[in-house]
C-alpha cells in the first residue's frame, strides 16, 4: 500500500483554498517549525457563516492535505459546524492517514479552533456560552488510530 | 524524465552483478559444506569471491567474513571489540555523533552492559578532528569506531590519520565503510584499519549480503551460532549467489573507480552550484571532502517530505532528513550533529547520484528542485514570516 491514500495525494498535489485573506476577521496559527509543522488559517466570518477560508502550511504531505481538507469542510458552513470539526472528520474525509501522521489532522482542527478563539476574543459579544478553544495537543502524544 | 538520485539508500544491480549470480542458482547450487562435486564447486567459488573482495581493500582472504550486510558486520565488529576489551578490563569506546544507527544503537546496548561511550563532535563541516580523537583516548579505551563516509551528508573522515592514532595507542580501529567501499580507494593495511564493514547493495550488488574485514589476530564474537561456516564465526549456509554477485560488483566498481569518481564529482559540483542559487539554502557537509555522488542541502522555510513527494511527481527519487520521513518528531541526527537547528533540518534534501548520471539529468534536477522549493515557499507561513522580517533567516 502506498504511504498516502489517493485523496490525501489529491489534496496535497492540488490543495484547495491556499493563500491569505487580507481582510480576514479570524486568524489562527498552530504548531512550530521545530516540530516541522505550522498551519495558519484565515477565516472571513459573516453572520455566523464561514464566508471564506484560506490556509498557509509549512509541513509534510499530510499536513498540507489536512489543511486543504479542513478548509473544504468548513467553507460556507455555519460557525457551529466549524466549531465542532474534529480531526477524526478530517482524517475520514481523507480516507485515512498513517498512524504517525494523525497529528497533522489534529493540527488542522486546532488551527480552526485557534482562529475561532481569535474571532471571539475580538467579538466577545458573539461568543457562545459553551465555546472555549480546545487546548493544543502535545505532538509527542499521538492520537490512537481507529 | 526518470532519475534515481538515491544511490546512498541503495543502488540498481549491475548487469555484471546479476549475471554473476545466475550460475550459482541454476547449476552450482550445491551446499559449500557438502563433499560431492557441486558442493565443492560452490566452495571453490566462495574462495575466489573471498580473494576478489580481499584484493580490493588489500586484505588477506582469510580476513574477510561474509555477512548479511553492513548492519550485521557493524554489530559483529562492535561486539567483538567490546568482548576483547572486556577481557582486559577495558570498557571505553570512542565513536562519532553521526554514525549510522547500526553503530549508535549497538553502542547504546553496550552502554547498558557497562561500557562507557564517548561520541566525538563532527563540527559544522561534518568531520572529526584527529587531535580531538587522540585527546579522547584513555587507558581503558578498547575501540574507536568512525565511519569512512557519512551516509547522509557524504563527508569523508581522515581515516588514515585515525588509523595512525589508534595504532600508536594500541586501540582497535573499526570503520563503517558501507558508503565508501566501491566508491573510494581503501587500503586497510596502509590506513591501519583493524575492522571494516561493507554492504553489497551500495555498489550495485544485491541486497542482503555484505562483509566484515577483521585483521588477522582479532578474535571475533559470534552473533549467529550454529554450523562451522566462516571459520565458525558466522553460522548458516553461505549465500553463495549473493556473495558471487557482490564480488563481481565490487571488482567492477574498483576497476572503474577513478573514472566514475571524476565523472560524478564534476556533476555533483554542477548540482551544488545550481542548487545553491536558491536563496537561503545551504550545503550540508564539507564541499570537497565528500563522496563523489553526494549532495545534501537545507532549504529554509519548507519541509522535506513535501519536497520529496513533489520531486517524485517529476520523476526524481531522492531522500530527506526531515522528521516526517523518519516517522519520528526529530529530524536527522546527522544534521543536528553538524549544528543544523530543527527548523532548517526539516527542510533537507539528499541527492546521491549514480555513476551513469548525465549533465542533462543534473540540469533537470536543478530546475525541478528550484520550482518545487519556490512553490512550497509560496504558501509557507514560516517563509512569509522570514520574508516579512518577523523572524530572522538562519541560512
Name some characteristics of this structure.
heterodimer, A: 146 residues, alpha+beta, Sufe protein. Chain: A, 5 helices, 38% helix, B: 395 residues, alpha/beta, Aspartate Aminotransferase, domain 2, Aspartate Aminotransferase, domain 1, 2 domains, 15 helices, 42% helix
Structure, explained:
The complex is a heterodimer of chains A (146) and B (395). Chain A is an alpha+beta fold. In chain A, 38% of the residues lie in helices and 18% in strands. Chain A has five helices and three strands; from the N terminus they run αβββαααα. In chain A, helix 4 (87-93) packs across helix 5 (102-122). The model of chain A has no long low-confidence stretch (mean pLDDT 91). Chain B has 395 residues and is α/β, with parallel strands linked by helices. Chain B has two domains: 15-255, Aspartate Aminotransferase, domain 2 (3-Layer(aba) Sandwich), CATH 3.40.640.10; 257-387, Aspartate Aminotransferase, domain 1 (Alpha-Beta Complex), CATH 3.90.1150. Helices cover 42% and strands 13% of the residues of chain B. Chain B is built from 15 helices and twelve strands. A seven-stranded mixed sheet of chain B has the order 2-8-7-6-5-3-4, sandwiched between helices. In chain B, strands 9-10-12 form a three-stranded antiparallel sheet. A two-stranded parallel sheet of chain B has the order 1-11. The longest helix of chain B is centred in the first third of the chain and has 21 residues, at 37-57. Chain B is globular, with a radius of gyration of 22 Å. The A-B interface holds A 9, 12-13, 15, 18-19, 29, 33-40, 55-64, 100-101, 139-140 and B 301-306, 309-310, 313, 322-325, 327, 329, 331, 341-343, 346, 379-384.
Condensed summary:
Chain A has 146 residues and is of the alpha+beta class. Chain A has five helices and three strands.
